[in-house]
Amino acid sequence: MAVQLNVRPEHKILELGGGDNPNPGSTCNVDVRPGPRVNFTANFEEPLPIGSNEWDGVFSQFCLEHISWRRAPQFVAEILRVLKPGGKAVIVTANTEAQFTYIKNHPEGWDGK
Fold first, then answer.
1. pLDDT value at residue 86
2. Among residues 69, 61, 51, 48, which one has the least CA distance to residue 12?
3. Is the model's pLDDT at 92 over the cut of 60?
4. How far is CA 17 from CA 6, 43, 58, 111, in A?
5. Is 74 exposed, middle or buried (0-12, 13-18, 19+ CB in 10 A)?
6. Mean per-residue pLDDT for 50-62?
7. Residue 88 confidence (pLDDT)
8. Contacts 24+ apart (CB under 8 A), 18-24
9. Is the pLDDT of residue 8 over 90?
10. For labelling, which of 13, 47, 61, 109 has a CA lying 20 to 30 Å from the CA of 6?
11. SS3 sequence, the chain?
12. Is residue 79 within 8 Å of 89, Cβ to Cβ?
């Protein structure tokens, strides 16, 4: 699944959980693990080491489902904290029911294994 971010060049877009495949529209990629395309790491179950009201947008894809359900509200609150007033957040999470249906209907697996 590809998400295209339509942003202006002057917008600062923070990506949370982009790993080694960040969205091309993001300005800064933060992940829990270091990598060649990760700007810095952070524990997403703790307050983010980012100032308040700094980002025009925050993008997080397939990250929220890896956070403890007890900490998920704090993660979303942190996204709202780091956004500038009027900023936008996009959070994409897995459709677990669809994934299990696919697995059930494709016993050969997604890669033929």
1. 94
2. 51
3. yes
4. 19, 10, 11, 24
5. middle
6. 96
7. 94
8. 18/59, 18/61, 23/59, 23/61
9. no
10. 47
11. CCCCCCCCCCCCEEEECCCCCCCCCCCEEEECCCCCCCCEECCCCCCCCCCCCCEEEEEEECCHHHCCCCCHHHHHHHHHHHEEEEEEEEEECCCHHHHHHHHHHCCCCCCCC
12. yes
**More confidently predicted of 15 and 66:** 15
What is the per-residue pLDDT across 11-39, written as a single tens digit (0 to 9) for each? 999 999 999 999 999 999 999 999 999 99
pLDDT at 7 over 70: yes
Token pair for residue 34? 């270091």
C-alpha–C-alpha distance, residues 30 and 14, integer Å: 8
By the 10 Å C-beta count (0-12 exposed, 13-18 middle, 19+ buried), 85 is classed as exposed
